[in-house]
Structure formats: structure tokens, C-alpha cells
Write a structure and sequence with these properties.
Number of domains: 2
Catalytic activity: 4-imidazolone-5-propanoate + H2O = N-formimidoyl-L-glutamate
Bound molecules: N-(iminomethyl)-L-glutamic acid
Largest sheet: 8 strands, mixed
Number of strands: 16
InterPro entries: Amidohydro-rel (IPR006680), HutI (IPR005920), Metal-dep_hydrolase_composite (IPR011059), Metal_Hydrolase (IPR032466)
Helix content: 25-40%
Protein name: Imidazolonepropionase
Keywords: Cytoplasm, Histidine metabolism, Hydrolase, Iron, Metal-binding, Zinc
Family: Belongs to the metallo-dependent hydrolases superfamily. HutI family.
């Protein structure tokens, strides 16, 4: 016997006849509920349970009904590492790398990030905004409802502020469709500061970071620790200054060389240490001890033609929380292909399909310190994806195609 209408919460949208993956049961369990329904009140999940109970549990009067037809329903994906504001292309560099030049060789001979920085700084705001919005929409169409977006191709105080303002505008323009999480990224020391690296770092700490904090342009501050980018001591200075202004640290760590980035991330209580292809055992232990999320980015490893895959199993076995993201950028991962990232996570990082899906949802949300996202439970933000298949295994198996049929953001259908 249904509860009287007055006792049943009124809902605005309901997904019925679904295989729901709640992604809130830990790293290896997608939390499957068969024959399930999800009810949404405005922008939050109100109820999850057996489809046959939904009419007794909530008041469906006036609610939009989506029939999942027995398909998989998951939280919206959280892409927790992207560099999607940039101009120009690096196709020539790609061709060079295919013939045997390494990413580091190209970077150290004046290519790489420096090329994108020149093109980005020469591009009008409107071009950067429109191109970034198009990339974000391509992600949204594949089920991504939250995107972390880094600056990093400006390399001067004013240029980085400009990029962060464009990211802020992106967040406003896409509000209600995709949540944009902005990160200030220090990506490289520009050539004009090569003789005075300490001076450049001081400029960042004393001018850029305070300006970013004052304008509330970023939630996080990230530093690329690598040969040809920043040294460990420089990164520590920058991230200490960022932390003092309320920005949460994250780190590009141990990507091409093992440089102690994971250890630094742990020391600073960073939200994440991303890449980690070259992380050593001490780094893994430090991440586990500090609860820092390991950001897995297999599209980069593929794109760089490397066989040095991040030791994801070792990280998971040590108890390190993991996220999975595209790392969309022109130099090391020119791809918005979410499906390929999921499949590579399984094929090359040896995650199970369930672990890959949890890493791309709850794991990403944890990396962004947003427990309201990336999982389905009463009270969580109603970001949902209805997929054209019935399992996480199928998502990873049928590789590099878009299985997302309907995307719901904050309780409203934003793509179908
Ligand atoms: O995350 N590693 C540093 N940053 C990007 C690459 C940027 C570029 O080459 O333009 C990454 O892989």
C-alpha cells in the first residue's frame, strides 16, 4: 500500500528500468542494483531503489520519466585532469615523435609547451573560449558532467590570469550542463626567465598566486615537476604559497622521470598526484599514507608511444585512491575519447572495468574534493548518464565509441 501522497517526496525526474551503478562502494565495486530506479528532486538524488517500489516511495506526479530500457545508469563522469584551453596544433611534433624523437627531446629543443604557449598567447579570448567550449561539449556528449580545467599555456602573470578568466567564463556559460573546476597550473619556466628561475618563482608566489586567490579564479594550484619544467624545490615554494592563499595543491608527478613528485604531493597533503608512470615504491607508500589521489592518465602514455604505464595495480594494492581522466591537451593526449581511456585503464593499467568506472566517477570527484559528485546516493548531485549498454564491462570492451545515450546534469537532461 503506497504511503499517502503528502508523505512521499515530490520528484522532478525519474529514471526507470535501469541497472544502476552507484559507484559509492569503494574502488572495486560499482554498487550494482538490477531492476532499479533513481528519483531526482530538482538537482539532487532523492531516492534509489527497486523499480517496482518507486511509485510507492515517491510522488511521480509531473515528473519527467526516462526509461533506461534495462541499460546501465551511472553517475556523471568526472574528468579530473584536462588542459582544454589552448590554441594552435602540435601535429608536426606528433609526426616527429612517431619517427623516434621523445617528448622531452622536443620540449628541450624549444618545442612542446612553448609552441602552445606562443599560439595561445597570440589567440583572441573569443577563439580560446569557443574552442574550449567545443572540447567541453564533446566530453559532455560522452557522459562527462564535471571537468577540471587547468591554465598553464600563458606563462606570465597576466597571461595565466587571462586563461583563468576564460575558464571562469566557461564555467558560467556551461553552468547547468557541466561543472567546471578551475586550476592554476605552472607548466614551465618561460625562456626569458631561464637565467633567473628563482625570480620567476618569486613572481608566481608574490604576484600570480595572490591575484588568483583575490579574484577567486582557481580552487587548485598544480605544478609540472619534470626535467625542463619545475624542480622539486621550486614546486614546493609555489605550492606552499598557494596553500597559504587557500588554493589546494595538486602535482604533475613522476611522469617522464622519477623526481620525488609523489613524495612532495604527500608532504603537502595535495588533492592528487597525477601521471606517476615513473613513481617509485617510496612514492607509492607516501601517497597511500597521506591519502593523496593518484591521477591515472593512460591516454598520455598511449599518445607518447610509451610502454611505461602507471603502476595502477601497485597503487591500488597499496590502498592509494585512484582517479582516471583524459588529460586532454595538445602535447601528450590530444583526445577527448572517454571510452578509450576506460579501455586503456583495463588493458594497460590492469584495472577491472568496475575499477575503471569508479576511478572515472567517484575517484575523479575525490581528486577534486567534491564528495557530492561522482556517486549516486540520496543527497548527491543528480548528475546521471544513461548508457546504451548494460555493464561497466561492456563500456570497456566495446572500445573507443560513445555509449552515452542521455546525460542529466543537476537533475535536467542536457544531452540526448
Ligand atoms: O599533463 N605533463 C605536462 N602537461 C601535459 C602536457 C602538456 C603539453 O605537452 O602541452 C600533461 O601531459
Amino acid at each position: 500500500m503506497p504511503a499517502p501522497t503528502s508523505l512521499r517526496p515530490n520528484v522532478t525526474l525519474v529514471v526507470r528500468n535501469a541497472v544502476v551503478a552507484t559507484c559509492d562502494r569503494g574502488p572495486s565495486d560499482v554498487g550494482l542494483l538490477y531492476g532499479a530506479a533513481v528519483a531526482v528532486a530538482d538537482r539532487h538524488v532523492a531516492w534509489i531503489g527497486r523499480d517496482r517500489d518507486v511509485e510507492d516511495a515517491v510522488d511521480l506526479d509531473g515528473a519527467r520519466v526516462l526509461d533506461a530500457r534495462g541499460g546501465l545508469v551511472t553517475p556523471g563522469l568526472v574528468d579530473s585532469h584536462t588542459h582544454l584551453v589552448f590554441a594552435g596544433e602540435r601535429a608536426g611534433e606528433f609526426a616527429l615523435r612517431v619517427t623516434g624523437r621523445s617528448y622531452l627531446e622536443v620540449a628541450l629543443s624549444g618545442g612542446g609547451i612553448a609552441v602552445t604557449t606562443r599560439a595561445t598567447n597570440a589567440a583572441p579570448d573569443e577563439t580560446l573560449f569557443e574552442d574550449a567550449a567545443a572540447r567541453a561539449r564533446r566530453l559532455l556528449q560522452q557522459g562527462v558532467t564535471t571537468i577540471e580545467v587547468k591554465s598553464g599555456y600563458g606563462l606570465t602573470v597576466e597571461a595565466e590570469l587571462r586563461l583563468l578568466r576564460i575558464i571562469q567564463r566557461l564555467g558560467q556559460a556551461l553552468f547547468g550542463q557541466v561543472t567546471i573546476v578551475p586550476t592554476l597550473l605552472l607548466h614551465a619556466v618561460p625562456p626569458q626567465w631561464g637565467g633567473d628561475r628563482a625570480g620567476f618563482v618569486s613572481r608566481i608566489c608574490e604576484e600570480l598566486v595572490p591575484a588568483v586567490a583575490k579574484e577567486k579564479l582557481a580552487a587548485f594550484c598544480d605544478v609540472f615537476i619534470e626535467e625542463g619544467a619545475f624542480r622539486l624545490d621550486e614546486a614546493r615554494r609555489i605550492l606552499d604559497a598557494a596553500r597559504a592563499r587557500g588554493l589546494v595543491p595538486r602535482v604533475h608527478a613522476d611522469q617522464l622521470t622519477s623526481g620525488g613528485g609523489a613524495q612532495l604531493a604527500a608532504d603537502l597533503g595535495a588533492a592528487s598526484a597525477d601521471h606517476l608512470e615513473e613513481v617509485d615504491d617510496a612514492g607509492v607508500a607516501a601517497l597511500a599514507g597521506a591519502g593523496v589521489v593518484a591521477g591515472l592518465l593512460p591516454l598520455s602514455t598511449l599518445f607518447l608511444g610509451s610502454e611505461r604505464w602507471a603502476p595502477a595495480r601497485r597503487l591500488l594494492d597499496a590502498g592509494v585512491p585512484v582517479s582516471l581522466a583524459t588529460n586532454l591537451n595538445p602535447g601528450s593526449a590530444m583526445s577527448e575519447n572517454v571510452g578509450l581511456a576506460l579501455s586503456l585503464a583495463c588493458l594497460k593499467l590492469r584495472l577491472s572495468p568496475a575499477e575503471a568506472l569508479v576511478a572515472f566517477t567517484a575517484g575523479g570527484a575525490r581528486a577534486l574534493r567534491r564528495p557530492d559528485l561522482g556517486r549516486l546516493a540520496p543527497g548527491a548531485e543528480a548528475d546521471l548518464v544513461l548508457w546504451g549498454c548494460g555493464s561497466a564491462e561492456h563500456l570497456a570492451w566495446h572500445m573507443a565509441v560513445n555509449h552515452a545515450l542521455t546525460v542529466v546534469k543537476r537533475g535536467r537532461v542536457v544531452h540526448e
